[in-house]
Amino acid sequence: MKTRSLKAILITSAVFIAVSLGIQFYILHHIYKNELKQFDTQVAKSINTLFEDQLLYGDHKNPITNFFQSKSNGYYIPFDSIADQQKTIDKLARDLSDYELMCSFHFYICKQNEIRYSKMFAVEMGSNGFEKRELQPINLVPPTHVQHIYIEFPGKKDFLLKKLNPWLLSYLILIICLSVIAFSLYHFFKHRFWNSVQKEFINNLVHEFRTPLSVISIGSRVLQSNGIENDSRRLKKYTKIIKDQTDQLQNNVNQMLELSLSGKKSTYLHRESVDVNTLIANAIEWVGPLIQEKKAVIEFIPCANPGRLNADETYLTRALVNLLDNSLKYANIPYITLETSNSEKNCSISIRDNGIGMEKKYFKHIFRKYYRIPTGNIHNVKGFGIGLNFVKNVVNAHNGRIEVSSTPGKGTEFRIKLPLT
Ligand code: ADP
């Protein structure tokens, strides 16, 4: 299956999974709310029975809403008089058990105009009945001085959540399963990506070595042919071909070397005091033959006093060569501007070209090892996708920074900032 359709399927399924998880969560929330409502109704019904059985006396025309519920897990019930405290509590506990509300509660009584609860009981509800005990007086201030009973269920939330346990468990299992699938898919795609990257790298590698080797082989066969020494024009032509292809091979070998050096830490740098302008002049000289071949124009605008760097000259030169090489590679008739500038602490090197440029979305990828922009016409230009990774590693090793800006069809600029000594 093509990667694009696979991606579309994955994104669609991810959206569906997210939506179904959202719906499940909504249902769970709804169930919890319903349980809460049912709890309140059953408590109200039990309290109502206390009035009906004349254990409590008072005004309760609408029994279910005749008490007001506090924000916490308790209920206030105003009343006129109470027949028997103990019997009232026992009856309440039995009624709650009948409704299967096996949730322990505290029972407080606040008499008319009292500022403290005068009586407090704790009732432990178990499957074999209930246990009642009087509580030590605590400093609980009632919210109203009207005579009332306050019934509190400290474990109400846990009791309700316990009822949701099977739902919560299935929701949790679903989330774990989905996470495992997502994790496996991530690794599968990462593996697939690296497989394709490796495949492309090896294809490029084979192409980049095989072509010069076969050209050298043909060239040397021509040079071995009889009478070649008398044809100076052919002799020159084929020795030049062999020389160019050997240079190409040399360049490839250098790139492989850069690949092996990529990622190594600054301890491998041989630092010395380096003049920035000299560094750039050396890099330009290095790519001299390529400049001639491509009939490129290079403009160097040196800063009057660029300062000195404590750097590894060879590594930095190769990094600049890589950038110049790209500017030459990715432009038809290259016009390259190199410019140095400095601030108090840093020195900046800018390399601008008039090449094919690149879209902004690629900026964060191009410094990754083996990465090549997957645009058709770029692939006419051969490469391994390791140059910019090497440049970035070298700049990082020198505690510097590299930035890129580019406009497709217009050109690219790389800016390197390095700390001065
Ligand atoms: P390579 O050039 O071998 O592909 P690099 O690591 O040097 O590898 O560059 C990574 C990618 O960044 C290139 O494939 C190319 O698409 C893009 N790139 C680099 N430099 C330039 C440039 N000056 N202009 C346009 N594209 C560039």
List keywords for this structure.
five-stranded mixed β-sheet; six-stranded antiparallel β-sheet; binds adenosine-5'-diphosphate; 421 residues
Q: What kind of oligomer do you see?
A: single chain
The pLDDT mean sits at 85
So how many helices?
9
Parts with pLDDT < 50 across at least 5 consecutive residues: none
Q: What fraction of the residues are assigned to beta strands by DSSP?
A: 15-25%
Largest sheet: 6 strands, antiparallel
Radius of gyration: 41 Å
Q: Per the principal axes of the C-alpha atoms, what is the gross shape? A: elongated
Associated small molecules: adenosine-5'-diphosphate
Cα distance spanning the termini:
55 Å
State the total count of DSSP E strands: 15
Structural class: alpha+beta
H/E series, N to C? HEEEEHEEEEHHHEHHEEHEEHEE
- Share of helix, binned: 40-55%
Strand order of the largest sheet: 2-3-8-5-6-7
Question: What is the strand and helix layout of this fold?
Answer:
Elements: H1 3-52, E1 56-57, E2 68-69, E3 74-78, E4 81-82, H2 85-98, E5 105-110, E6 119-126, E7 129-134, E8 148-152, H3 156-163, H4 165-224, H5 232-261, E9 272-275, H6 276-286, H7 288-294, E10 297-301, E11 308-311, H8 313-329, E12 335-342, E13 346-352, H9 387-397, E14 401-407, E15 411-419
Parallel strand pairs: 10-12
Antiparallel strand pairs: 1-4, 2-3, 3-8, 5-6, 5-8, 6-7, 9-11, 12-13, 13-15, 14-15
Adenosine-5'-diphosphate (ADP) is lined by residues 326-327, 330, 353, 355-358, 366, 371-373, 378, 383-389, 412.
